[in-house]
Records
---
Amino acid sequence: MRKSSLARRTELEFASLMIPGLFLFSVGVIVPMLLGFYYSLTSWDGFTKDLPWAGLSNYAKMLADANAVSAWLFTLKFTVLNTVIQNALSLAFAVVLDGNLRGKKVYRTILFVPCLIAPIVAGYIWLRMYSDVLPALNALLGTKINFRLFGSGDTVLPGLLIVNQWQWVGYWMLIYVAGLQSIPVELYEAARVDGASRTRQFLRITLPMLAPAITICVVGITVGSLRVYDLMVSSTSGGPGRSSTSIIYQIYNTAIAGRQYGYGSAMSMTLIFVLLVVAVIQLGALRRREVQL
Amino acid sequence: MSDERKEPRRRMRPADIIVQALMTLIAAVVALPILEVVNLSLKTKRELYVGDPLALPLRLAWENYGIAFERLRLGTAFLNTLLYTTISVAVTAILASAAAWAIARNKGRLFRLSYLYFVLGILIPYQALFIPIYVMGYSLHLINTVFGIVFMYVAVGMSFCVFLMASFMTQVPLELEESARIDGCSVYRIFFSIVLPLLKPAIATLVILQAFGTWNDFLMASLFVSDTKLKTMTVFLRYLFSTTSQDYTTAMAAIVILFVPIMTLFAALQKYFIKGMTVGALKG
């Protein structure tokens, strides 16, 4: 009996170590999520004492709202392209910089450093890069490349994607490098003895062994892309026109500038729903690959 | 060592030379914007408008940094950012480690469910919740207070950090904890005097990730602090970027000022960090 009451006391002590974290997380994230869901069912403007009930009308409104739909389309395009490009580039750089290149640590550090810069600052720096610095490079090289990518609705997405790769490829690359380094060398030696080609080694050893890193990078990049916002604040302000207004940007405009807290919350809830669904699907698909090993 | 001796450095094949050259070019392109910011921050305004942006400054105009600090009162914003980042990262590190350790050492349902509850939060970015966060902050009088913004940074960072720290717990040997428990140490004492010191590499990883997230955060800071005395660097820079397009050299100096501390932190903890990414990211 004494032993079990001691174990119980220890368990309570352990629980008490967890409580502050649970409390902060609940108050700062879970409560706002529940509140947000409630607001999304009202037509609250953020001022009045009462919150007029609106049922699901905000959600219906979103589907018919051309601005919300275009913000969604931009966000989804950005997310799909960014996830594919960023994973491919990070993995490619990781493989190259895990090989027998000279000074690979220096290259890794250089590629990593841009992620330490605030996204809002990155946006501003690239605004200057595209408008003055790169055109000056044109003059130097005698080329006529159009670098003013933020100037037109057709090129603003590629322009932002370039900035985002510049900023984050080094970060995800590091996770892939860590994954590559955890693959036992014996596997490659055995494959070489069996006469497997480099490509075959990559497809049959490297990729399957990297499955946990791939899971982290794919989910991480997708979640990060769906909430893109800071980058545009100082670079494009969501423009030209509305061509680079992401969903978070649109929520900000709707709620803070347009004083439609209820409607803005409905967009937020939709975003969380999309995030959870996409992440669950990706985790399901990618984890299954991990298990098959 | 002996292997390396027997096999002298492999001669570079043409393919290797091409890859090496290509990587050097890519690294130069990646470094260009950062070098350019530093370059522009040391030019005079005249040079900036008349001269070639790629040319080096004729003389180093250090006064831009003085202007950034003095006339723009960047010092206050700098200290605020430092204060919010330091407190919130320290609190997050302790609370997340405590929670992750408790979860790792107990198999009960309460602990497993708590872990799932925390981890769910990773998929809910605070950016999607800024409306209720703002409303809540406003009605609880947390807006424009140091406590309010620090509270929010800790709260939104918690779930990722618990996940990160939990993935490191296999690295902490049980034997030490058990012998301490036999000696009659309380759970709290074991945590602070045994577990926390053993978690150093993990904490270094957490500190870097949280510090650069918080240091560079814009949205939360712009929601929570409008009072000039409490503004952070990013909020301040946003204002600088949008209002003073003619004060472009000062803006560049301010960017460098924002970047240097976080870069220093990274350089100092780099060794732990890369090890931390290997363990933390892949065991999860």
---
Amino acid sequence: MKKLSVSVLAILVASSAHAADMGAVDEPIKLAINEWTGQHVTTHVAGEMLKAAGYNVEYVTAGMMNQFQALADGDIDATLEIWSSNVSDEYAKKIDEGTVVEIGDLGLDAKEGIAYPAHVAELCPGLPAWEALKDCAQVFATAETLPGGRLVDYPADWGTPGADRMTGLELPFKAVPAGSEGALIAELRASTERKSPLLITFWQPHWAMSAYDVQFVELPAGEEACFNDPSWGPNPNAVNDCDFSPSRIFKAGWSGMEEKWPAAYEILTNYQLAVEDQQPMMGAIDVDGGAVEEVVAAWMAENEGKWRPVVDAATK
Amino acid sequence: MTAVTDTPAQQVRLTAGAQAALITVIVGAVCLALEGVAPWLVKWPAAWELPATQWVGAFLDWFLNGIKPAMRLFSDLMTYPMNAANYVLGNTPWPILISIVTALGWYLGGLPMAALGFIGLSFVLASGYWAESMNTLALVAVSVPVALIMGGAIGILANEVPRVKSFVQAVLDIMQTVPTFAYLTPLLLLFGFGPVVGLIASAIYAAPPMARNVMLGLERVESEIKEAAIMSGGTRLQQLFQVEIPAATTQIMVGVNQCLMAALSMVIIAAVIGGFNDIGWEVLLTMRKAQFGESLMAGLVIVVFAVVIDRMSGTLATERKRYDSRVVWAMLGFAVLFTAAFWAWLPNPSELTVLDPMAGAIDSGLTAFTQANGPWLDALKNNSLFYVLLPLRIGLDQAVLPFTWGFQWTPSMSWGLFAVGAAIALLMAWRGHLTGGLVVLILIGMLETGIGNLPWPFVLTGAAALGWVAGGWRLAALSVGLLCTILVSGLWERALLSLYLSGAAVFFCAVLGGLIGLASAVWSPVWTVVRPICDMLQTIPLFVFLIPVLMVFQIGEFSAFLAICAYAIVPMIRYTRHGLVNTPEEMMEAAISSGATEWQIMRDVRAPYAAPTILLGLNQTILYAFAMLVIAALIGTTGLGQSIYLALGQADVGLGISAGAAMAILALIADRMVQGFAEERRKALGL
């Protein structure tokens, strides 16, 4: 519902807006390329839209955690896929300073949760219902976590949502921070190849969801009350006894952007990309080995109706 | 724990080592006894912690913002050479570049070097990472001159003003031991985003070897040469630049070589920041997808560069003969003609996929290996954890559980263990090894409590005692002072965890590396096999190793332990072998003529003589192990390395710098102590 209202809003804004000034067309607009494929797709689609509007675009590689200083200095003009679940504190600092501005939701419908590769359902019958984990903990136990089971959590610098769930739901699991995304993927891969048990904190859209046939554990819905009110949910004495709160994926830009490239700013603000569009492109790149430029170009040609109106609204 | 000085039991006066060990035992015993009534003796209370990380953060914010404009100017200036290098390397057709490197190889080292350059760059071309590699080279090409100038200036300064020498030494140590990740955030703030930050980071890391070699080289210039320069009436500058520096060239060239290698090892760190599309970024992307084959290929490109640069710049440090320069011109001419003739048919190097099948094969090989060997590898991991690593970290009293050892540890078992320890100590003291006995008792106590739970007074006393034995009261005071800063800053627990993990790794490396070094020294075929492995372990980006280790052993301490060992064992092997092989001829002859057997020579002649060198190897192993802790945090360790990543994520300058400093402090103390013992051994041998 939220997603729908956002896109309706976007269309309203787009149609009511007057054509904006193009601004400094000669200078390239620099878009951040972060470490993951989905973001590459998101950014290249946006970049192609800006090019179609008549701008110069430059793609700049930037570490996800380190990019905000660059954004504040105008060394990068926009970054288009920020996950509220693991945005660094520096982002909040820069927003407070006013050097970075948020430019709306991307419209990607993300989901995070406690997950497992499909074969694990045989090792722990009763999955995906979360109650099954109460009795299965032994299956997931390892040397470091005995007697509890082992949950592979996000790297510590992304927060500890998995550990919070285990405490909230009183599940006999010990959360082990992964250290890096590569470590999470290596765990998934090793578990799938060896048919060994694995419980992991994970998210979608992600290419590994389909590559390793990852399933989510069904937890009580992550409502606002669950995070404030201990009495809510299956455990009357704790908060966090539910699923993850839905994460928001949004865009941000350098504060001087609106003035320098008004039309580009409008295009990026109204730009939306859906999971149904992003996920197949990710597959075409990571699983089938396509180049991001070609995959995006093919999508742009086939789906002109999805992006052309946003460009036209800002420029015509 | 190496200070085993023998004391006859009848002698009343205790040796320094015995006194130190005795005090440590008493403090440890008091802490253990009072554990129940005074918990603050074991765990430093949170209320006593100073908000030091916040102070550091606030001070740095103020300081950094103050010097920011000047640094930004420098950053803007550096973009010019950076862009120029990028433009030149990026736009030179690949046949010309390959021929330039081949010709350079010929000029420096004849046919073997030329072949090395040609094959190496052909591999880079075939890998399909040509464009990315050129970006990396551009970064190295600019950062190395910066590092050389910086290092050279520091070295000359220390030589000219002897008063600052010890200060300079400390600064160089800090530059090399504080992990780069710890100061990435302030660097970004200072220099802005982009390749310049990577350039500065690698220059900071690469300058110290240059500075050290300049200092050493200038120190070693013979006094006759210096006097001749003075007598000929030159100014100080003329003496320095026209006489002393040329005389020290060979040593300075060693510095250049080390500087190049260090700069290359930092490209991956530069990639973490981003800013341009280099080979390090490729390693990071493939690593993120856990594609071992691909990331190994990208990593090998860096290894190839490292080997080519190392061998070619290595020839600069040795006397070399001249090779025919006509060959150079012929090669370049041929390349130009080739490029012009086939211009239209030259393949775009980014589209070459010759090595892709190999990457795929490596990847599926890894899969097959983990599938086939899963059970026994799991057993290995579990046993190592249950019986070695866990007891070391949390102590026997907590690690021995029905799930792990099959029974529950009880307090009476602790008393039993202590009684056994005391009996051994008494026995050894009676036999005349009082210090040794006390050390055994200390070790048993540490095993019972676990390194992660050691009482802080015990750690401080122990460090002071070791420092005192190794280098007198100054080192003891330094160790305690530095450790206290960690204690009050609230990073103590994490520091102990780091100490435990690197300590376990160092111990393992010392034993296994020592044995491999010994085997390599006595039987040369072993060395033929071991040497290239050592070369590769030292130059490949360490990230690459994390994937197979993770695939086989999963996230956790055991994986981190193995990753640290893989890197830190190399110096131990190298130095042990080097020390054992290079026994002076006359000592060997004397031993042989006195009729000693091979084994006696090894034990009584070679080993004692090699001891200082082996201790130096141990010192390097310690530093390497600490350096690797940060990388190991990527597979989920919980020590100081993790704090550094947390700080990076939260842009918390204070925490990052404090955690980095704590790591450097641990490494520095360990380093000074080992050096102290090495010095003692050297004096004992009359070297």
---
Amino acid sequence: MFKQSGYGIVILIGLILAALTILEFFMGINHIGAALLMLVASLKAILVIYFFMHVSRLWTAEGEH
Amino acid sequence: MRLTSLGVVRGLVGYFAGMLIGMAVVVISRLVLGMSAWDQEAVWVGGIIFSIIGFLLGVGAMSDWLKWTRGVQTPLRHGPPVNQPAWTRYFGVDYNHKVIGIQYGVTAFMLLVVGGSFALIFRSELADSGITFLQPGTYNTVLSMHGWVALAAILLGIAGIANYLVPLMIGAEDMAFPRLNAFAYWLNVPAIVTLLISMLFGWDSGWTAYPPLSLRGPVGYQMVFWAIFGIGLSSILGSLNLIVTMLLMRPKGMTLFRMPILCWAILATSIIQLTATQLIGQAFLMLSFERTLGMPLFNPIYNAAGENIGGQPILFQHLFWFYSHPAVYVFVLPGLGIISELLPVFSRKPLFGYRWVALSSLAIALVGFLVWGHHMFTSGYQPYLRVVFMISTLLVAVPTGVKFFSWLGTLWGGRLTFQTPMLFTLGAISVFLIGGLSGPILATAATDLFLHDTYFIVGHFHATIFGGFVFPFFAAIYYWYPKITGRMYNETMGKLHFWLMTPGFWLMSLAQMTAGTMGMRRRIADYDPALGVENVQLLVTIAGFVIAFSILIMIYNLFTSAEVGVLAGNNPWRSRSPEWQIPSPAPEHSYARPITVVGEPYDYGLAGSTYIATAGAGDD
Amino acid sequence: MAAVTTSAQAAALHPHDAHAGHDHYAAQLRMNRLGLWLFFISEGFLFGGLLTVRFFLWGADTRPELDQTIGLIVTSVLLISSVSMRLAETAMERGNRKAFSVFILLTALFGLIFLGGVMVFEWGLFPSLYPAHLTPWGDKYGAVVFAMTGMHALHVISGIIFILIVWNLARKGNFSQERHWGVESCAIYWHYVDVVWIFFYPALYLIGNAVHVTH
């Protein structure tokens, strides 16, 4: 996967999240159903949990970070 | 020694100071915002929130954390407070899990006595038809208080068992987060004080606090909401601590399937407590906010067009039972774990089907999340939901059956001895069987429609709780008493306690169910003599007093034996569990050296089998 | 069965004193991480419960009339704050103190802007700036909006306080490149608050058709 400690990847994920948010906004004003909106929201949540909250540190043994 | 050196005294001072400050804050803010100074709901809510914080600051449960925010390091304090008698550590913040476990246990026992006394008061009223000494309003308050005080006793009792035993059983030095552990205990104390204060104002809906009644009743409800929120938060934090402890602090060689079986039960319990408890906290906060700010979340409002633009009362029932049904498994799973833990010791045989028992606890916990709707068969929700919830509820019988067969398999062909803990374990099985067999009758929608809100429910519930919690809790107290005090309890008094309480409870439970099938409603102060339940009611009351008397014997036994009991030695029960391999009473630092697990936990009677070894003592 | 050796002297020794240091820190870090994540799971049930309340009372086809522009702006601000928080943590991992301070203060600032946006525009606390359109006591729309945003705002406020404490501790030199659990916990707590909003934003602003309630 990506090297998680760079500044670049953070910005990239931020841009993807922004794009998804704008997508959500237009889905919302065009009355696309609740299920699809929640799906996009889940995708955003997974990105934040994986890249920002680095959930994988829970099961990796290293203790340096 | 000054009185204020006791943490609990400082806490109570903080409690009442906080209450005054909170009330003043609300009154002043109301004046600033241009409202009338006094609104009892708002003023009390402010008072309660600040009083709980005041208690925690006063007792010192947050001192270390507050220092951390300023960058001050605080080493973990061990041993009793300096320059004070050793007993004072039980009345203040202490980080040792054994001290916290005893604090929980003793508080739970006191609450059990208080809650039981409430029951005796209104049972006396019910012994005869007609109103004799309790007016219906007071009757309802006492009855509702019995509910929550007893449930608080159970939650604290479980926390006591878990805190004392889990680190000992997995050979850990302490819990994962000792400060959080102490905080979680001390959060209960102001909550309980608040709960008891609610009696002065009254609240009359029964423990369920369904709206709209709980939105219209006296201000005592606000205290109940916040008290239960506090106890719930404590139970969330406690379970979080237990899960981390069990997952990360096990010694070398102790795989999950080599943990003592009680740990599995507590792991399953903790999963429920960690998650579901949020829902009752949320539901009670919503009730409090609806009362204080008028937010229409549960109370319907109809506009001119006849549409409901307000809330829905049934929403509360969904939120409430999403916790409160799994909560029943929180109450019974540790008890069932104690039964599974004690039977092999007193049968001198391996636990039958260890893995199945371990997984059945998890299965009960997980299925328990899907069954809340069986409390709502008569609530008026979509009728098809009745079928769904009926099927999911009946599923619970499968893992519960696994446990029963495991107990029978363990007993079968064992060399049984009948000391008091074993008697209470067997009593628990018999009583839980009564509760369990009356369960499917209520889980079936067709029969539940007739039995809903009758004494049959009361009988069923008390049988499951006594079988699943009270009897095993007493078994646990007798069993681990030597480890806690270093002395044996009095066996004769223990047996007397058992032989009064068990038949007393059988009688009480079956009589309650009988009254229910005869048409006796629950939560009413009076009943029509024409129902023909007067004799049955009298029997229930007499049985209740017999149980109470037997518990007095237990209290006397526990108090006197701590002084005069025979010295117990390290391992009076010849148990293989790690906690029995260390001195009694357990020392401040339980394990001088880390232990390693080299075998199966319950291989009683198998030649040459070993469970634990001491690291560094020859084997590595 | 081997008994555990229990000599009084050995019992008096606190095992952690013997091998304090790296192993102990790593073990404690693992427990801290798991504990915090369990707390998130627990809180997830609280916020999930609030979402349930929203769908139970409003259904999937109605929502209150809320200003879409404001919603998009506050959501973006919170998202940007999450990015800057992750940058702050990365800076700490790389030992760049100055960048850390800048980014974490930026995070707090964005958090405050989000909070201000919610308070001024959604709650209408200052009618002179923006006229109030919803009240908590009016109808189920106002009640649920205030319940959801209120509970979320409580977490934002605690997050900002947490950030300021961590910033102050970092200023005093309490964290190192290797050991900064305080920073890490603060960062993932802040991201968690963002995750909650990721679900609340569509639930409050986007799902269903806006209805005008007649009283």
---
Amino acid sequence: MATMSEKPANVIGPTLSRRGFIKAGGILVVGFSFVDPELLRGDSAKPTTFKNSLDPTLPSSWIEIHPDNTVLIRTGKSDFGQGSTFTAYRQIVAEELSVPFDAITTVVSGHTDLTPDGSGAFDFLGHGTPNIRKAAAYTYQALLDVASEKLGVPKDKLSVKDGTVSGGGKSISYGDLVKNQQLKLTIPVKGDLTSIFGLTIEGNPPMKPVSEYTVIGKSFKNSIISTKVAAKETWATDVRLPGMLHARVVHPKTLGSSLVSAGSVDKTKFPNSQVIVKGNLVGVVAPTEWEAIQAADQVAAGTKWSDWKGLPGNAKLYQHLREEADWTSAPIEKSKESKGDVGPALASAHKKHSATYQLSYMKHAPIGPTMAVADVKSDGTVHIYVHNQNPQALRGEIATMLGTTPDHVIVHSYPGPGHYGRSNGGNSGAEDEAVLLSKAVGKPVRVQWTRADDMQWSTQAAAAFSDVQVAIDEKGKMAAYQIDHYMPAMQDDRPVGAVLAGLPTMSAPDVHSGGVTSTVNGLEDPWIYAPVPNVIERGHGTFQVGQKASPIAVGLRDHSMRTPGQFQQNYPRELAISEAAALAGADAIQFRIDHASEERAIGVLKAVRDASGWDTRPSPRHDAVSTGETPVGGRGVSLMLRSGSYWACVCQIAVTPSTGAIVVEKYTVAVDPGIVVNPMQLKRNVEGGAVMGIGHALFEEVMFDESGITTEDWNSYPIPTMADIPEIKVVLLHNPKVGAYGGGSEAANALAAPAIAAALHDATGKVMRRLPMKPAYVQEVLKS
Amino acid sequence: MVTLNVNGVRHEVKAPDDTPLLYVLRNDLELIGPQFGCGLAQCGACAVLVDGKEARSCVTPVASVANQEITTLEGLPARWAKQKGLSAAEAKNTLHPVQQAWIEEQTPQCGVCQNGMMIKATELLESNPKPTLGQIKEAFTTSGPSPNLCRCGTYVAIIEAVQHAATIMAKGR
């Protein structure tokens, strides 16, 4: 019989009804605190905390152990489909505490008032030491201290199995240990809760040796899948508050238009609809969703906007970036791997490769357009119900917009569509608009963007181009490598509704903007070919396209997207390396192995070579052909190091020269993340990234004219369908001696493009140095 | 007033005749399986079965499906139980084999599209209990108003789950 095969964990924490909310049903909190100065080597200065926040220095803000031996964990990171909080995090905590996986019955994530650390839904495994691992390790030490005292057995004579501490012939369960205990442990943290990276746990608590792992490495199921599949999950889009109104926003005509006059609603047709205007923000609210939609259409038709033309249009994008963009305002970044003197080596090259590579703008394109419910109370308290990658950062942005402090803003997190980075800086579009409309009408308001809103008014992954030169010596080795990466600012975290309404936000990307929102183009793609004697890698940054020209300071706003920045830098590098191999008359995988020194890089290359059935030979193939109606096959490879994981990918394609259509037939990827925490979940994440990467490589390009984005739906922004997917083979290289676990969701999407482009070269002898490789563009290259 | 028959239950709905079925299901009947993805019948996130055929509820006027048999994700377990003649006690603890397979194969990532994927899989397996890989790809790509789109790229997991569901269904329970 098909029954529920597993015990689902309560993954949200408080019990919520679908209509109106029931208060959290009294979770028993057993706080215990303990000080062991030996463990506290970090900066334990207490960071600023806000009202409606947990105290991050209290252990119970991270992990609760209950008298019934169940465990609750809290993380500021929201799940976006990676499943890490419901699988890897439970495994990591179970391992460090030595409790069974199933003992961790509750994962509280994202809610700003119920989780301690903030930060975004990225880098879940924290290069092997996520906050939750350290929290568990500290907690374990504190538990041992309590047990030692209680059992009268020295700490080093104690052992723990399945949540029971034993030693000296005595034993006690964690549940009994924590009953009625008032203990002291201060978790040392530093950072800024509402910044993109949130708080970090400091210090170096002892961790369980990898050789003793029993939970990590197993394919535990993701508990939230069961509730989602059974339609028993409450998603952000399901939240309904008493008296809530539905809203749609009428966005400006162009990315630089100002409001001339707002349209009105025909009250005889839509008696309960209201138009709200705040600066250039026009919203329509109504009691039912269908009335809001129809009334908003009517208002949109009657709303007048100024015209604006200030974008280059995508046909002139690269010309604009090369000739008109200001690359002098931001300092040029240089990679730390840069060394030697490339100038003379390039001048005296036996053979030289010199080329420019271009990537278009791409959309994150969540499968569900952004939405949010906001409830601005009469006392100024703001509640936001949303699916967001960085709820604490959102909290800060909303406070800035309203001229208040984060104390009065509470963000409640629910599942929703993958954002792939779009909201990792705190907003995805609808949140601030919902707050402004709720404040205006004094009722809870649900803003739902349309598909067109989501394509045209959200941020996008930045376009980029890179100039590369490679010198090959007489022995066929790379003597010099030079790359200059050019990319507009890749992260604009200003909430767009606040910008339209003319309310305070952080500054638009500028050289002085902090961290990821700066115009400085940092080097994101770690160099793997250490034996190359002369290397220079430079990053050139500038303002977003249209940002300064737009009278409303909008233009083409960018945002980091899955493998951000590194995608834009790895694609040109890896395609150039494949071209250099061809120039040297060498096999593309062997050429990489010959220029790599790191064992793990060589390991993934050899693994992908074996698994893909690669035949060692130079590219292009001896019978490469760039004309005709008969499909011709080719294969290419790519290599990347990201978040502590090494990746190598081989794509085998068939291209029809007469049409330019590329079909990816087989995609093989090998990944060495160090320790594989959960093989099944990692495999699924990699498969998904592979498919997205094929979309990036072949289809995805934001179309825009001089006024705005013309891409508006799934027809004008095609993504892969099931018919587009190749045979996908994932090779996981479990490498415990690394002693840490690397990331596995990013990178997978970035590997396909350079491998497919190299495969096109292999098949046809022609190189296409531009993404996406749409048939029409491929045809142009093959005809040249 | 429109009379709807959803998951075997009759509802009198006050929504205007042209209201898309999706908003009636989600807002009036509190059936949240179908998701809003595009409102344009381009993605499949909102799919339901209407008389056993996949339909896109985001563009289906509610009055056009009055008195037809509508099944949402919430109704899949009962649909299976009825087809197999399971007792009420058995039916209560039973998921549709498609849902079961989706869990076993750990198919969803964000999961927003998976409502439509499971609806499409149910439609396919009810007419073709042993689909080939080509038939599965055809079902999810060309059989409906648009391909069923997944932005997370879970198609491999969907194919494996359809094949697994076919095995469960062949066993009969």
